Task: inverse folding
């Protein structure tokens, strides 16, 4: 079945860039998503990219997609303490359901 | 901006009791989903619903679970006889025609005691 892998933890200093990586196995993935989850809260959609795109930029967020390697990354520029959260990568194929990674806990140190 | 709403935000129930989790998807969306997230774990797919029937379900979605869209606006998840391991956050999601981005609700935290 489909699988999505992420590294579990990332720690950066305030003002640095954060890069969160994700790999997936489903070659029929249509959409790839990044969600942010703060403690006890729901899933906040940060951004998504179509599988026929290589890059998408949205303010401080840059998503890079290497479809050949099935690798997705999320770069957060000028990381702030408010960016501390769990970030989930998810892919969605034509079947419609989303498959999530385990989540990367981002800790931003002042 | 339209959003998926879920009620209640938190429900505590005794083991063996039935619970119904409610969701109001975004109007004119066509595809509906339930996911769950056990504390500290990943978000897992439970079931998808399209054209008034289940289109796909996971191994987790056994006979204790059922879904309904009773009135064209609400989308419910029923757990007939709750177990301790059903304690989790349950997320509803909907997708519009054109099958683009998935919109998630804020979740219902279910605690089975």
Result:
């Amino acid at each position: 079945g489909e699988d999505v892998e992420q590294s579990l933890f990332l720690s950066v200093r305030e003002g640095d860039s954060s890069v969160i990586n994700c790999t997936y196995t489903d070659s029929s993935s249509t959409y790839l998503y990044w969600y942010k989850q703060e403690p006890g809260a729901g899933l906040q959609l940060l951004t998504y990219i179509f599988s026929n795109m290589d890059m998408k930029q949205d303010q401080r967020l840059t998503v890079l997609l290497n479809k050949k390697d099935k690798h997705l990354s999320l770069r957060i520029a000028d990381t702030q303490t408010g960016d501390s959260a769990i970030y989930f990568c998810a892919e969605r194929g034509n079947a419609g359901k989303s498959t999530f990674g385990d989540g990367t806990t981002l800790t931003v140190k002042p | 901006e339209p959003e998926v709403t879920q009620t209640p935000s938190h429900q505590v129930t005794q083991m063996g009791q039935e619970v119904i989790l409610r969701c109001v998807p975004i109007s004119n969306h066509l595809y509906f989903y339930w996911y769950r997230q056990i504390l500290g774990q990943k978000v897992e797919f439970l079931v998808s619903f399209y054209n008034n029937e289940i289109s796909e379900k996971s191994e987790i979605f056994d006979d204790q679970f059922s879904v309904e869209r009773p009135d064209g606006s609400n989308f419910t998840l029923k757990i007939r006889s709750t177990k301790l391991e059903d304690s989790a956050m349950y997320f509803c999601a909907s997708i519009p025609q054109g099958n683009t981005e998935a919109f998630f609700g804020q979740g219902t935290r279910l605690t089975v005691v």
Remarks:
- The mean pLDDT of chain B is 93.
- The interface with chain A takes residues 31, 33, 35, 41-45, 48, 50, 55-56, 89, 91, 93, 95, 99-107, 109 of chain B (CB under 8 Å).
